[in-house]
Write a structure and sequence with these properties.
Layout: E1 2-11, H1 18-36, E2 40-48, H2 52-61, H3 65-82, E3 89-92, H4 96-111, E4 115-125, E5 130-132, E6 149-158, H5 164-173, E7 178-179, H6 181-192, E8 198-199, E9 201-202, E10 218-219, H7 221-225, H8 228-231, E11 243-247, H9 251-265, E12 273-276, E13 279-281, E14 284-285, H10 296-303, H11 305-315, E15 322-324, H12 326-356, H13 367-385, H14 389-410, H15 412-415, H16 423-445, H17 450-459, H18 497-518, H19 523-530, H20 538-542, E16 546-556, E17 564-569, E18 576-580, H21 588-591, E19 595-599, E20 605-607, E21 610-612, E22 615-616, E23 618-619, E24 627-628, E25 640-641
Parallel strand pairs: 1-2, 1-11, 2-3, 7-12, 11-12, 13-15
Antiparallel strand pairs: 4-5, 4-6, 6-8, 9-10, 13-14, 16-17, 16-19, 16-25, 17-18, 19-22, 20-21, 23-24
Helix pairs in contact: 2-3, 4-9, 5-6, 10-11, 10-18, 11-12, 12-14, 12-16, 13-14, 13-16, 14-16, 16-17, 18-19
The chain binds 5'-O-[(L-methionyl)-sulphamoyl]adenosine.
Length: 642
């Protein structure tokens, strides 16, 4: 029985952080759980490498686009190895095999009449060479804040509008196609509101998969990215996937576009999409500008990968947003892992050493603890099955507490000294019951805590590897009397809050700095960013040649509502030609003779066929109109600002 699941194919223009790790860890957990249920599981993750943003990131890093993608993709792979995740396929969208699968999808959709050539009109940022989806004329570019331009070009379109009813029928007939319920409702109302056709190619992008026989068209992001899930298992013929795990922000692409593409192509649909919530850092969204991005590596180094897994799965209700903080991470670790599971395992095993020379004693039927364990196994399995990981863990911890209580009640240390003739058997029963409960708990926790449960398993002296345990064979009495336990060692040593947090923060700064180097930033900047502020050295600032200029001529650029074509005197022999997106805020007459601030040493850029040799400095608030920088006192043309 095969089970194929995926994580998103992550963008390579940012280095991996615990947000990416979150989805990938859950995927690994599900893989292990499904394997325990007897499935043959295949897990795909990968990297989404095309598009202007990636090209620009590479440029900034001073690398070729390919080199840059190789480096970041390798960084993602390294992270998953470091965290011990069972990835089967790391699918890159730049893999040549992928180009074939994308083109095949396109051909199928086209043959079936769902692709047509049309004219695309949309918003585009000429400075960033970026198409801004869902923007209205005049909306600002999300990257630089400058007003976007309305452009028109010939593209291939996908007839998404033809799929409204089919999609609604799909959601209706398979109520668990999109989980959780909130996301399902969101998608349904979106589809009910009507779907417009999608432009799926671009003709002025370089870094993309060429549409075969249709140069210069390349595929536009999502049509390229989604099908990577299929490319990854093309050789095995494993499509369709049982499960796509994603974050909630990309649910529309997965629950609307993706099934529509597949229906149009006549290909089977994935069985289910689970869109989880956001991981926030100390209640704030993680973002580069806030400087609050948390990486997995420092946590793995200081506390181990299992500590991170446990925290993410126990503390965050899967499907909802959750908050990460170092304090809470360490708090959970100490209370549940060190004092809970770790303590129960080591006290049980130590007593077996002390009172029974390290051999599992023979025993009766385990009584109430055995009944409770059986209930726990079935409840936890149900919760895992329905993606309620925190609930599964809560359930398992109730058993841990019950066993702790049972040990205190039975007081083996007293039984060992008691002269009562029934005491030795009672001691046997107690020790067996505790050890058998530890065995069952350990097996149940393997999907969540693979590294530590493997250790506890070995300490119990179990002959077969924990990986081979099947959930349906987990029942009371599996622990063999006479089995010699292994060497006991603490699996979850207590962690002191302050030094651990200090160490993690220190490593965090180091890791961030390394990753910034990978992304092509200077280490000093990177360190400053890690502290939450992007600072530059004065030398960096002095590289910018800011000059006072006077506008000599100004005229609107033909065919554009935004662009103004000016000549500006900045004290050089010849005036500069400057094209700027200020025409909606200033007419030519308001500009002529005005003193302005010019960035004089920018590389020239062609805008609507006119070469602009400099940039005019203006302020703007969000999507407000630009306001030109100027002076209250008189100042000669050509003066430098510094
Ligand atoms: N490349 C697209 C996905 C294409 S899939 C065919 C993409 N990439 S991404 O790098 O932005 O990754 C987004 C995904 O990373 C989220 O959907 C989620 O799985 C994970 N996360 C990234 N940051 C996250 C949080 N802060 N919290 C939770 N998950 C987050 O979108």
């Amino acid at each position: 029985m095969k089970y194929y699941l995926t994580t998103p194919i992550y963008y390579v223009n940012a280095a991996p952080h615990i947000g990416h790790a979150y989805t990938t860890i859950v995927a690994d957990l599900i893989k292990r759980f499904k394997t325990m249920q007897g499935y043959d599981v295949v897990l795909t993750t990968g990297s989404d490498e095309h598009g202007v943003n990636v090209e620009r990131s590479a440029e900034r890093a001073g690398k070729s686009t390919r080199e840059f993608c190789d480096a970041i993709a390798a960084e993602f792979e390294r992270q998953w190895k470091m965290l011990g995740l069972g990835i089967d396929h790391f699918q890159r969208t730049t893999d040549p095999r992928h180009a074939k699968v994308v083109n095949d999808l396109f051909q199928r959709c086209r043959k079936n009449g769902f692709v047509y050539k049309g004219s695309y009109t949309g918003q585009y940022c000429i400075f960033d060479n970026l198409y801004v989806n869902d923007a209205k004329p005049g909306d600002p570019c999300p990257d630089c804040g400058r007003p976007t331009e309305t452009v028109t070009e010939e593209n291939f379109f996908f007839k998404l509008s033809a799929f409204q009813d089919k999609l609604l029928a799909l959601y209706e007939s398979q109520p668990d196609f999109i989980l959780p319920e909130t996301r399902r409702n969101e998608v349904i109302s979106f589809v009910k509101a009507g779907l417009s056709d999608l432009s799926i190619t671009r003709s002025n992008l370089k870094w993309g998969i060429p549409v075969e026989g249709e140069a210069p068209h390349v595929f536009y992001v999502w049509f390229d990215a989604l099908i990577a899930y299929k490319t990854a298992v093309e050789d095995e013929g494993l499509w369709p996937a049982e499960l796509h795990l994603i974050g909630k922000e990309i649910v529309r692409f997965h629950a609307i576009y993706w099934p529509a593409f597949l229906m149009a192509a006549g290909l089977p649909l994935p069985k289910r999409i689970f869109a989880h919530g956001w991981l926030l850092f100390e209640n704030d969204k993680m973002s580069k500008s806030r400087g609050n991005i948390v990486r997995s590596e420092p946590i793995q180094k200081v506390m181990g990968a299992d500590a991170l897994r446990y925290f993410l799965l126990r503390e965050v209700v899967f499907g909802q947003d959750g908050s990460f903080s170092y304090d809470a991470l360490i708090g959970r670790y100490n209370s549940d892992l060190a004092n809970g599971l770790g303590n129960l395992a080591s006290r049980t095993l130590t007593m077996i050493n002390q009172y029974r020379e390290g051999a599992i004693p023979a025993s009766g039927n385990g009584g109430e603890v055995a009944t409770f364990a059986a209930e726990t196994i079935s409840a936890a399995q149900k919760s895992f099955e329905s993606f309620e990981f925190s609930k599964a863990l809560e359930t398992i911890w109730t058993l841990i507490s019950a066993v702790d209580k049972f040990i205190v009640q039975m007081a083996p240390w007293k039984l060992a000294r008691s002269q009562d003739p029934s005491a030795p058997q009672q001691l046997d029963d107690t020790l067996y019951t505790a050890a058998e409960a530890v065995r069952l708990v350990t097996a149940l926790l393997y999907p969540v805590l693979p590294e530590s449960t493997r250790k506890i398993w070995a300490q119990l002296g179990m002959p077969e590897p924990i990986e081979s345990v099947r959930i349906d064979s987990l029942s009371w009495g599996g622990l063999k009397a006479g089995q010699k336990i292994g060497e006991i060692a603490g699996v979850f040593p207590r962690i002191e809050l302050k030094p651990a947090v200090d160490k993690m923060r220190e490593l965090e700064a180091e890791v961030t700095a390394q990753q910034q180097i990978l992304l092509g930033k200077k280490p000093e900047t990177a360190e400053a960013e890690a502290e939450g502020v992007a600072r530059i050295a004065i030398d960096d600032f002095l590289k910018v040649d800011l000059r006072v200029g006077k506008v000599l001529t100004a005229q609107n650029v033909k065919g554009s509502t935004k662009l103004m074509h000016m000549t500006v005197d900045i004290g050089e022999m010849k005036p500069r030609t400057i094209v700027a997106g200020i025409a909606e805020a200033y007419g030519p007459e308001a500009l002529i003779d005005r003193k302005v601030v010019i960035v004089a040493n920018l590389q020239p850029r062609k805008l609507k066929g006119i070469e602009s040799n400099g940039m005019i400095v203006a302020a703007s608030v969000n999507d407000g109109k630009p306001v030109l920088a100027g002076f209250h006192e008189d100042i000669p043309v050509g003066a430098r600002l510094k």
